[in-house]
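Quick start: read one record
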Amino acid sequence: MKTIIVSSGVALLLALFGTPVAIRIFTKRGYGQLIREEGPKAHLTKRGTPTMGGTVIVIASLIGYLVGHEVTDDPMSASGLLVLMLMAGLGAVGFIDDFIKIYKQTSLGLRSGAKLAGQAVIGAVFALEVLRHPDGVDLTPADAHFSFLRDFGPAIGVLPFVLWIVFMIAGTSNAVNLTDGLDGLATGSAILVLAAYVLIANWQLRNDCTSFLSKHCYDVRDPLDLAVVAAALLGACFGFLWWNAPPARIFMGDTGSLSLGGVLAGLAVATKTQLLLVVLGGLFVIIAMSVIVQVGSYKMTGQRVFRMAPLQHHFELLGWEETTIVIRFWLIAGLFVALGLGIFYVEWLPG
């Protein structure tokens, strides 16, 4: 528990006081956000706002994690390091995408194929590595199974597992990326899901099958360290949100959205709650589906379902204030997190 507190506290302070430093540096270098002309006209006033703020989240959470372990002398784990590796790798893909946009002064960065290829390579490495690194009782960070509240069904084999995890990582990181269209929306929503994973990993630690056998115990390799990872990201996002909340003084960019999506997917894999993430991250799923529905409808019928996709921009064009949309979407994200936690804990209820 001390490691969780120290890691999250250090990450929070670094992000809170490091973000204004990043704002000054990025502003001086001209690393400003470019706005699509076809988007909501209210967004044109945001042109030039510093972007790539996700670098602060990534750096603050990594330092917070390292300091937390150093201060408490708690050993790092394979599971925690692999999730952080996934975060850093996807953050690097996002950084390249953001830098190309700034360098070419366009709202389009990496080609979609190149971005997906980067996500696929990093996701495949992560998927292969989580099947390795057994601990003293032969538990690996993940097994070649589907999971909901824990692994279920027969093993699906290494190749299908890798393909499934790559799909899951790409889907989650892109869903968070699509959500990052309004000030603070993706950051605040991610905070809620990260808080859920702090609780989930702690509960798995207290009901670990290696400690005592019970009907619903968990075969999770490093639940405590996964809680530390989630807490470090939680603290970093809290500190960043102070400056990212409406009206935002800095945007996270693809650097932040892809890395946050990667962390959520990595935590779901390592805690063996892959499909539960669909519920916990329900807002991200809805926003991603709005884009799929919009594109599919237009290609098949020539008609648009929404005034604009992703979904948050539809409500902007209906006349909703940006702050109203952000707060209401945070409430929806909170309801999904509450539902997901309820599902997770319900099997422990008497009867």
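The chain has a mean pLDDT of 92.
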